[in-house]
Amino acid sequence: MPTPDFAAPGTDALTLRLVTPDGLDAALGDLPQVAQAWARAQGFRAGPGAVLALPDASGGLWGALVGLGDDKARARGRFIAASAASKLPEGTYALDPATDPDLAHETALGWLLESYRFDRYASQEHGQARLVAPKGVDAERLRIIAAGEALTRDLINTPASDMGPTDLEAAAADLAERFGARMTVTKGDELLAGNLPLIHTVGRAAAADRAPRLVDLRWGDQGPSRWWARGCASTPAGSTSSPAPPWGMKKDMGGAATVLGLAQMIMALGLKIRLRVLIPAVENSVSATAFRPGDILASRKGLTVENNNTDAEGRLVLADALALGAEESPDLMISMATLTGAARVAVGPDLSPFYTDADADAAAIGRAAARVADPVWRMPFHAPYEPMIEPGIADLDNAPSGGMAGSITAALFLRRFAEGTRYVHFDIYGWNAKPAPARPKGGVGMGARALLEAMPELLDLE
């Protein structure tokens, strides 16, 4: 899919003025007489996302007004002005130079995100309004962030028929080739020889061309001796549990998609870190060789797991990847996965819930999230719930009965395999059921921009 970009600067750009209801009279008084009369005649009230094209004296287009809404509306929404990218008439627009710098930055990024279209299977109407990068905005950084987000959305939006383990491997291989990363793949029965039994168990029933695998990508020899290891579960196919909505299955690899999008941002920006990306990619299929409820499973770490739900497979494959990553004692290890419905129930589709034992890391991520309009919410590694994941017949239970605290117990399960590391876990949703400014309906990255923004503080980068 085409990568969203800014328009080339020129002298003929149309003026784009962002307006609040309180500032409307002043904004209208500043307009050319014809444009001012038109705006008053149209009854423009600067509601959130409202757009009004303005004529010039010759009947052509002078520019446009975009409503931001009142304080309440702005508190409820983000990227409000970016919706103009899909509403304005064709043309090249430039923000009024008097626009607040923070608002200009958010609008510029939101414009690129709003311009995304998934057109792999059917042509999509692309907005014809283009924005000149505002002065003072790091346009190249925003392009890189938007491109990484577009990759994440493309991967999630692609149905499982075209986005299995082989396809995720291909996506990672493309990144490795473009950015000079090193990549290895452990596949099929090689997983048993490499002591990755959970990944093998979950994916062993898949067809040969969709064999389970662990993708291991390494990039960067710069900077201090640190690794940022990342594990992510990816299960883009069927399950032996009750059926899920069609979009629910294809987004099951949203963690892998978000990790790959973030990895692209990191590499394209040339950050001075050592990055390791681990993607356990499996198809959880049904056949005579599939794993069963009640099976006791072996793991890389040596812990046994009682499998009480074959649809709680994401945490199983992620467990082996986390154990592998922890063996190198990384400075920071982060997992991202569309892991539990309980997380969505707890905080809804718009927030990225995350877990960490480090208060300083949680604070850094929270501050960064606020700066880049990528909202997150810290959830607790609540130690009193540890007995819920200890079934007695095995070391761990992958799906405790009772239906209580499902996201927390999943996070506690994963923490057992990341033991000894500084660890952050994101249990993300990865999907927009309804379109919103800068977030079209469909797959979406969550938490990636917050992590990218927090990285200098998390890893003490210069």
Automatic annotation (TrEMBL):
InterPro entries per record: Leucine_aapep/pepB, Macro_dom-like, Peptidase_M17_C, Peptidase_M17_N_1
Alphabetical list of SUPFAM superfamilies matching this protein: Macro domain-like (SSF52949), Zn-dependent exopeptidases (SSF53187)
CDD domains, sorted: Peptidase_M17 (cd00433)
Composition-biased stretches (Low complexity): 233-242
Record keywords: Aminopeptidase, Hydrolase, Manganese, Protease
Gene Ontology molecular function, alphabetical: manganese ion binding; metalloaminopeptidase activity
Region (Disordered): 230-249
Any Pfam family hit: Peptidase_M17_N_1
Domain of life per record: Bacteria
Cellular component annotations (GO), alphabetically ordered: cytoplasm
Domain Cytosol aminopeptidase residues, every copy: 309-316
Entry's Gene Ontology BP terms: proteolysis
Family to which this protein belongs: Belongs to the peptidase M17 family.
Protein name: Peptidase B
Organism: Limimaricola cinnabarinus LL-001
